[in-house]
Design goal:
This protein is mainly alpha-helical and 208 residues long. It has 9 helices and no strands.
């Protein structure tokens, strides 16, 4: 950087360095410098999307969810085939309370989520995260049956990946499944109680 302070590649790498060290203000400064560099045009769409996504994450961490969502959307527009951009936006939407938008974003892709069941462990782990994110959005919008199904898929894929579960999907999906199963059990018990009470009232009612 001393020799070429406007080099967007060097600035991006330096931003990643600070991000890895959890020096978020420094990381944001370098990534914004890379994005605004007069030589940023040499970056590919994928490389620019990476910068947008990292900036989105930094802004979300800082509590600026609206600007974070703007960056996530820019990242997805620049590189729509990168699942990381899709998931970052979906997770950000859930964090902002816009779970319905997250469902609408992920639903068209849901059928493709199982496409790499026999792929590399990292790919399977990514599919697990996709299903988990979709399940969270479904649960928050009240689609509990669909959420239960997606949590199950997320858990199975995370177990299948056989790699370090960095996103904690196995534990998180497992707890979500227990929570939803408790809800369904309570509903069933309530319905059975209602039916029994109705039957009891009918038996007490005088016949005409």
């Amino acid at each position: 950087l001393k020799k070429d302070p406007k080099n967007p590649y060097a600035l991006t790498d330096f931003g990643r360095f600070w991000l890895a060290r959890r020096e978020y203000i420094q990381a944001r400064s370098r990534l914004e410098a890379a994005m605004n560099s007069p030589r940023a045009k040499i970056l590919t769409d994928s490389e620019l999307a990476d910068i947008y996504r990292m900036l989105g994450g930094l802004l979300e961490r800082a509590g600026d969810i609206d600007q974070a969502l703007d960056y996530y959307k820019k990242a997805l527009n620049k590189s729509p085939d990168d699942t990381r951009n899709l998931l970052s936006l979906a997770i950000g939407l859930c964090a902002a309370g816009n779970s319905q938008e997250a469902v609408e974003l992920l639903e068209p892709c849901a059928e493709k989520f199982d496409a790499t069941k026999s792929g590399a462990p990292a790919e399977i782990a990514m599919r697990a995260l996709e299903h988990y994110t979709f399940a969270v959005a479904l649960e928050e919008t009240g689609f509990l049956d669909e959420a239960l199904s997606s949590y199950n898929r997320a858990l199975k894929l995370a177990q299948m990946a056989n790699v370090t579960d960095n996103a904690g999907i196995i534990d998180r999906a497992g707890m979500a499944l227990e929570r939803l199963e408790d809800i369904f059990d309570a509903r069933q018990a309530h319905e059975e109680k209602r039916v029994n009470e109705d039957d009891a009232r009918k038996k007490k009612s005088p016949t005409l």
